[in-house]
Write a structure and sequence with these properties.
Radius of gyration: 23 Å
Strand content: 5-15%
Distance between the termini: 57 Å
Number of strands: 8
Largest sheet: 8 strands, parallel, barrel
Bound molecules: 3-methyl-2-oxobutanoic acid
CATH class of the largest domain: Alpha Beta
Helix content: 40-55%
Strand order of the largest sheet: 1-2-3-4-5-6-7-8
Order of helices and strands: HEHEHHEHEHEHHEHEEHHH
Structural class: alpha/beta
């Protein structure tokens, strides 16, 4: 929460893609995923720049084995929940698997659904093969964030969730994709799980900001899956950092509640009828 010199709370202005783009070389961009209303409220009070409704929700919220199972309908419901919190941060929604790959018309129609709900931009995975599709979405007035490196929707083709760009050929392909994507009109680019040198060279080359996850520190910003930093869930990738062990904090609270109910200590507060006459009448009826 920002305050002025006498401690008054300053209203943060709503961030636009222009604000995010201007952060390159000025301020590290802080991005995080969110999937619901109350978490978005907390994230926004903390003052992050970008909130992504990631299709990671399939794994961390819906219990799916991968992001491949996530549907447009599910992404829309969670986008609505996040938008209902009216965050000042830029809201970006992930385009789920097979929602943009077929043709321009479908890609434009599906991405427009997120903006209608209040999102500020969409993100889609993939490189130069989607250049024309991205161009047509951008030309319809919908800002697009790119996503290269490890693209989880293609984990089967990639051969698992592995670090990419470890050899020259792979590094060059990712770099070339980044250059092509900038040319297609994206306003920023997520680089996931690559050798740090790949992300560094891309960041130095592009004039749009790069936002990295597991690709090292030489980027214009960082993004993380919120469940990983909060310590929710049993698995998190090796590049994530757990800032709090929320799983055990929540478990302790639930055990305390359970113990209180079983021992008659909860509820502590309760309320009765207005008059003794009514009570008597009620029990005797
Ligand atoms: O789905 C997601 O959460 C993402 C981030 C990890 C970048 O795409």
């Amino acid at each position: 929460m920002q305050t002025n010199y006498i401690g008054e709370i300053l209203e943060r202005k709503k961030l636009t893609i222009r604000d995010i783009m201007k952060m390159k070389n000025n301020k590290k961009i802080v991005a995080i995923t969110s999937y619901d209303y109350p978490t978005t409220k907390i994230i926004d009070e903390a003052g992050v720049d970008v909130i992504l409704i990631g299709d990671s929700l399939g794994m961390v919220v819906l219990g799916y084995p991968s992001t491949l199972q996530v549907t447009m309908d599910e992404m829309l419901i969670h986008t609505k929940a996040v938008c209902n919190a009216n965050p000042k941060a830029l809201i970006v929604s992930d385009m789920p698997f097979m929602s943009y790959e077929f043709n321009k018309e479908k890609a434009i129609l599906n991405s427009s659904k997120f903006l209608r709900l209040g999102a500020d931009a969409v993100k889609l995975e993939g490189g130069s093969e989607y250049k024309d599709i991205i161009k047509s979405i951008v030309n319809s007035g919908i800002p697009v964030m790119g996503h290269i490196g490890l693209t989880p929707q293609k984990y089967k083709q990639i051969g698992g969730y592995r670090l990419l760009g470890k050899n020259y050929q792979e590094a060059k392909e990712i770099y070339d994709d980044a250059v092509q994507l900038e040319d297609s009109g994206i306003f920023s680019l997520v680089i996931e799980y690559t050798a740090y040198e790949v992300a560094k060279k891309i960041t130095e080359k592009l004039s749009i900001p790069t936002i990295c996850i597991g690709s090292g520190p030489y980027c214009d910003g960082q993004i993380i899956v919120i469940n990983d930093i909060l310590g929710l869930g049993d698995y998190s990738p090796d590049f994530a950092k757990k800032y709090v062990d929320l799983k055990n904090i929540i478990k302790d609270a639930i055990i305390n509640y359970k113990t209180d109910v079983e021992n008659g200590k909860f509820p502590e507060k309760f309320w009765g009828m207005k008059s003794e006459d009514d009570r008597k009448k009620f029990f005797e009826s």
